């Protein structure tokens, strides 16, 4: 006899529950107990879980109904979601594939000088530029140039899209406290959910062979800081300057373009720096769902216990991370300096 | 009298969510402290009635928290009033549409701020040209006008500096140049010189007076400093806890304070430097020029210069001239009497 029988009879719910003869196998523990020929002997007072209550009352759900329910619900919604989301996200696949093709097709003797030139243009710092050149050569020497370029192409696309969407969202949030209040929990969620967790529904929605699958996963994860810091940056703009803008009759657009965005730029740049770093972190995990690049080698290291392969790829990721960080930080300080503080 | 440039009538401002609902308490005479204690609303302005004449400098003075900034921000509706009328050049600012209001801010009144409020990422030239570029003028015009006014405030050569590279005084010159570039009839100056050190401050006051002599703008100037107020004001408005305690010609207020609050204010200042002959002279009756005068003085001479001139001898008397015309006589004994604040003289009278 189950522990909660008395509870249901005391509440007069025995009839509603139906007969408890129904001896459908309940759980693995029960099966084991039955095999042992005795009643399952749990703790003195079992925790009132679905499964335990179900033992006393057939009408109560079992926990596996919950997981089944979620799965069925999701599967039922899938065709609708797919017809909506598929066309919308299709350009992402094209962009990712296109960038991948471009980065790979470009001969190294053009690509490497180009990257070094971009670093110089963004940072205007000799040490940073030299560091970039040396790091890329190091990666090339150990034959990791190609995979590094694949990773870079994904980061390039995902960061661009994150900025393209993140900055306007951040601007909208800074204008409306209501919007901010409703978006912040969502951002918190995106940032705290273990990255694997939102890979699961994405795998259901899109096929693993499509590049937008990892693209979406990376963007969802990496867009958060740029949104947050755009919002923060605009909110932190000196109120006196905003008042002056109003007093001279600027309209909202002029205020945004001439005052708020330029003054928030250091914060926005800091957000972009974090977005780049987070897409790099995610691109490694995304190799689980067929994202190419350095992450694949790390994964191989783990799966096949090939220590050397894993570590070299790991060092490659670190190098890439330091390059991206240094270049974007140097660009940030450059912007900061033109806006000398009071 | 001609129509005033700016007229505030029956203006009330209460800060808080239900300002309209608690307004009647204030109109029934509830004070700032009571309102805060009983209804949780802050009284900003209480029944303000002020006329500001074209071409004059109207100075609004009061201690910190008396509502000066609140008052000046009503003229261009950076703050919305709870009740009352704001008429600028005969037009009710409260009736303006959003576009109309923006237009008024661009074309009618420009503002100079205590903390300068320049755009840190723009050069001095672009900052000064901002009001014009907001109106959609082309860059050449903006730069030309900006350069002209920067030169006028003594900043030529600094066009390509950034604000942070300039001292406070120079930054405020940029602020003034920006307001002048806007070429508006009205200039609002909220404690424009309060953040500057005393010497620079005097320079800036002189600059303002010099510009005003030539431009004849309607200037509304906020300050908490009586010396500054007396130096600049054509019309002085004294605020306390959101209401006007006294307003009028500054010399008149100085000689006839109508409230202990103002007596306190005026008791500390150097009266000899502020008071002018015209305020204390005996006006001429039936055009008779006294024969025993020791010389001629101008109506606008300060008492300080008179004391220096007479060598401190109180037996002298002078003829007062306004240009060519004789307008009155000045007895040095009168002058000495005027140097003593009214409170003190009353106290002296009571003792004897
Ligand atoms: N947004 C606001 N919300 C609530 N109370 C306010 C607000 N703005 C001003 N006040 C209150 O209104 C009163 C007048 O403020 P105001 O800034 O006009 O004073 P002020 O005379 O300019 O003082 P200061 O010399 O310090 O600049 C003060 O009591 C202040 O606390
Ligand atoms: Mg103020």
Note down, in words, how this protein is organized.
The complex is a heterodimer of chains A (342) and B (352). Chain A is an all-alpha fold and 342 residues long. In chain A, 78% of the residues lie in helices and 0% in strands. Chain B has 352 residues and is an alpha/beta fold. In chain B, 41% of the residues lie in helices and 22% in strands. The longest helix of chain B has 18 residues, at 198-215. The A-B interface holds A 238, 240-241, 243-244, 246-251, 254, 258-259, 262-263, 338-342 and B 76, 78, 102-106, 110-111, 113, 115-121, 130-131, 134-135, 162-165, 178, 182, 188. Adenosine-5'-triphosphate binds at residues 15, 42, 44, 62, 64-70, 224 of chain B. Magnesium ion binds at residues 68-69, 191 of chain B.
Mean pLDDT of chain A: 87
Rg on CA atoms of chain A, Å? 28 Å
Structural class of chain B: alpha/beta
Question: How many β-strand stretches of chain B?
Answer: 14
CATH superfamily of the domain at 273-339 in chain B: CBS-domain
In what range is the share of β-strand residues of chain A? under 5%
- What does the largest sheet of chain A look like? none
CATH topology of the domain at 273-339 in chain B: CBS-domain
Please estimate the helix content of chain B: 40-55%
Quickly give the CATH architecture of the largest domain in chain A: Orthogonal Bundle
CATH architecture of the domain at 273-339 in chain B: Roll
SSE string of chain A:
HHHHHHHHHHHHHHH
CATH-derived topology of the largest domain in chain A: MetI-like fold
- Class of the domain at 273-339 in chain B, according to the CATH hierarchy? Alpha Beta
**Total discrete domains of chain A:** 2
Q: Helix content range of the residues of chain A, please?
A: over 70%
Q: How many separate helices of chain B?
A: 16
Number of strands of chain A: 0
GO molecular function, one term (chain B): ATP hydrolysis activity
Domain ABC transporter (chain B): 30-266
Protein name (chain B): Quaternary amine transport ATP-binding protein
Subcellular location (chain B): Cell inner membrane
């Amino acid at each position: 006899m189950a522990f909660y029988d008395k509870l249901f009879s005391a509440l007069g719910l025995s009839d509603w529950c139906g007969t408890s003869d129904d001896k459908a196998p309940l759980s693995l523990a029960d099966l084991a107990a039955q095999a042992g020929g005795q009643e399952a002997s749990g703790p003195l007072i079992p925790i009132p879980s679905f499964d335990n209550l179900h033992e006393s009352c057939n009408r109560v759900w079992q926990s596996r109904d919950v997981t089944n329910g979620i799965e069925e619900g999701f599967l039922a919604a899938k065709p609708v979601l797919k017809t909506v989301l598929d066309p919308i996200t299709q350009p992402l696949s094209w962009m990712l594939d296109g960038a991948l093709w471009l980065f790979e097709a470009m001969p190294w003797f053009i690509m490497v000088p180009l990257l070094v030139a971009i670093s110089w243009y963004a940072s205007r710092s000799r040490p940073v530029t030299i560091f970039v050149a040396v790091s890329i050569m190091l990666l090339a020497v150990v034959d990791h140039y190609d995979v590094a370029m694949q990773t870079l192409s994904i980061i390039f696309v995902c960061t661009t899209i994150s900025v393209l969407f993140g900055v306007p969202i951040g601007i909208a949030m800074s204008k409306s406290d209501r919007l901010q209040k409703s978006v912040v929990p969502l951002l918190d969620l995106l940032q705290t959910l273990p990255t694997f967790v939102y890979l699961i529904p994405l795998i259901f929605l899109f096929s693993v062979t499509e590049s937008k699958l990892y693209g979406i996963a990376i963007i969802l994860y990496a867009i958060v800081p740029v949104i947050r810091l755009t919002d923060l940056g605009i909110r932190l703009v000196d109120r006196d300057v905003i008042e002056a803008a109003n007093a001279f009759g600027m309209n909202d657009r002029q205020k945004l373009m001439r005052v708020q965005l330029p003054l928030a730029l250091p914060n926005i740049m800091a957000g972009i720096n974090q977005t780049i770093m987070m897409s790099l972190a995610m691109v490694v995990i995304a190799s689980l769902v067929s994202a190419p690049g350095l992450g694949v080698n790390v994964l191989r290291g783990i799966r096949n216990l090939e220590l050397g392969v894993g570590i070299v790829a790991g060092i490659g990721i670190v190098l890439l991370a330091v390059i991206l960080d240094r270049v974007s930080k140097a660009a940030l300080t450059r912007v900061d300096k033109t806006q000398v503080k009071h | 009298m001609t129509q005033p440039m700016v007229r505030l009538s029956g203006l009330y401002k209460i800060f808080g969510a239900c300002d309209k609902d608690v307004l009647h308490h204030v109109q029934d005479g509830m004070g700032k402290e009571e309102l805060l204690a009983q209804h949780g609303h802050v009284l900003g302005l209480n029944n303000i009635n002020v006329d500001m004449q074209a071409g004059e400098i109207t100075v609004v003075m009061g201690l910190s928290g008396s509502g000066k900034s609140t008052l000046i921000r009503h003229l261009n509706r950076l703050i919305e009033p709870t009740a009352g009328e704001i008429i600028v050049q005969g037009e009710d600012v409260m009736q303006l549409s959003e576009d109309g209001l923006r237009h008024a801010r661009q074309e009618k009144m420009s503002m100079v701020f205590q903390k300068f409020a320049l755009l840190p990422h723009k050069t001095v030239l672009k900052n000064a040209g901002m009001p014009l570029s907001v109106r959609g003028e082309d860059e050449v015009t903006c730069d030309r006008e900006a350069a002209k006014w920067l030169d006028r405030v003594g900043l030529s050569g600094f066009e390509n500096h950034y604000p942070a590279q300039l001292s406070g005084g120079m930054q405020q010159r940029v602020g003034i140049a920006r307001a002048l570039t806007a070429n508006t009839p009205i200039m609002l100056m909220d404690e424009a010189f309060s953040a500057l050190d005393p010497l620079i401050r005097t320079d800036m006051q002189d600059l303002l007076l010099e510009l005003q002599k030539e431009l004849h703008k309607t200037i509304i100037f906020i300050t908490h400093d009586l010396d500054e107020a007396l130096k600049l004001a054509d019309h002085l408005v004294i605020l306390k806890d959101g209401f006007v305690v006294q307003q009028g010609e500054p010399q008149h207020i100085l000689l006839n304070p109508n409230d202990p609050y103002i007596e306190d204010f005026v008791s500390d200042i150097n009266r000899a430097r502020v008071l002018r002959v015209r305020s204390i002279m005996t006006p001429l009756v039936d055009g008779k020029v006294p024969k025993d005068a020791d010389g001629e003085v101008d109506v606008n001479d300060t008492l300080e210069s008179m004391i220096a001139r007479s060598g401190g001898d109180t037996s002298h008397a002078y003829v007062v001239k306004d240009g060519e015309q004789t307008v009155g006589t000045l007895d040095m004994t009168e002058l000495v009497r005027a140097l003593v604040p009214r409170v003190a003289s009353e106290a002296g009278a009571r003792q004897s």
